Amino acid sequence: MKFSTQLFPETPLQRVRWPITDAAGVHFFVKREDLINPYWSGNKWYKLRGNVDAMKSQNKIGMVSFGGGYSNHLHALAYCGKALQIPTVGIVRGDYRHQLTPTLRDCEAAGMTLRFVDRKTYAQRYHPTFAAQLDPNLADYWVIPEGGANREGVLGCQVIAQSIQHQLDQHLRCFDLSSSSHKSSIPTPFQVFVPCGTATTLMGLISSLPEWANVHGVSVLKGEDTLTERVKQLLLDYGIKPHCQWSILTGYHSGGYGKFPPDLKAFMQAFEAECGFLLDPIYTVKMMRAIAAGVESGRWSKGDVVVAIHTGGLQGRRGYDLPM
Ligand SMILES: *Cc1c(COP(=O)(O)O)cnc(C)c1O
């Protein structure tokens, strides 16, 4: 794999020939946020960008956040801190002191200070002064919620939408897709798929994509039937307005967060062989499956434009013994 050496690269939007979309005549594109870097890959990096800006304006001296032993978010935060020379602290659910996961080993190597807390303590992470109560030194740190799920994270993710719109325009002009089924004065509608944990990334997209886009979030957690309502409330709290249509699909969690049953693995291996790039087992594979289901059921067909956001997370493959 070839990764960017820039801190803020613009990732490519690639036309991908996938037999499933090809057979249906669907124009399939993938926004390759996994190519930013294996470490601060994907959407986590955009969320952190928004938070770094906030940290600086608040005159904080470092950043502290929370996560599990395989957290993409802590991983990205550690490397972000290293790259920008900002001290970082990771508060980790569970005691991994004597058996650091590959993710946590990377975090430490990147200079992050790790603090391990038990599940009961970790449950208090949403309390605004939780970090400072744990360690008074953290009072001067910018606190980032688990997963980078805050308003700054949403604003950071708007950059993805701006880039997609611009790049898709270029592709459509190039393939002349717009003139075939739509009058050139009318923008070509397009479908955007994004995996959802907290839906922070989704909120960044829907607040920045144009009204002719339709965004489909694919929830990777089980029992997230209320996620749509939560997103609506958060948008109000953040004072952010969606411009396009959006919805959240809840039927593709494959058993729940982190669950990776054999059928999902088989789907992933087929996809990787057919398309020539890797997916992560927690998020992007479930999104691709939702797209496959939509195409196979005839929901998307000839001439439709479907954009999948590869949000990265490849470092998480190590937790499943998948080759990098
Ligand atoms: C965290 C993560 C997501 C989920 O992002 P949210 O903004 O929390 O919805 C999706 N994909 C990958 C690879 C992630 O690491």
TrEMBL record:
InterPro entries: ACCD_DCysDesulf (IPR027278), TrpB-like_PALP (IPR001926), TrpB-like_PALP_sf (IPR036052)
Swiss-Prot/TrEMBL cofactor(s): pyridoxal 5'-phosphate
Pfam families: PALP
Residues modified as N6-(pyridoxal phosphate)lysine: K44
Location of the active site: S71 (nucleophile)
Residues annotated as domain Tryptophan synthase beta chain-like PALP: 10-312
Domain of life: Bacteria
Keywords, ordered alphabetically: Pyridoxal phosphate
GO molecular function, one term: D-cysteine desulfhydrase activity
Family: Belongs to the ACC deaminase/D-cysteine desulfhydrase family.
PANTHER family: 1-AMINOCYCLOPROPANE-1-CARBOXYLATE DEAMINASE-RELATED
Protein name: 1-aminocyclopropane-1-carboxylate deaminase
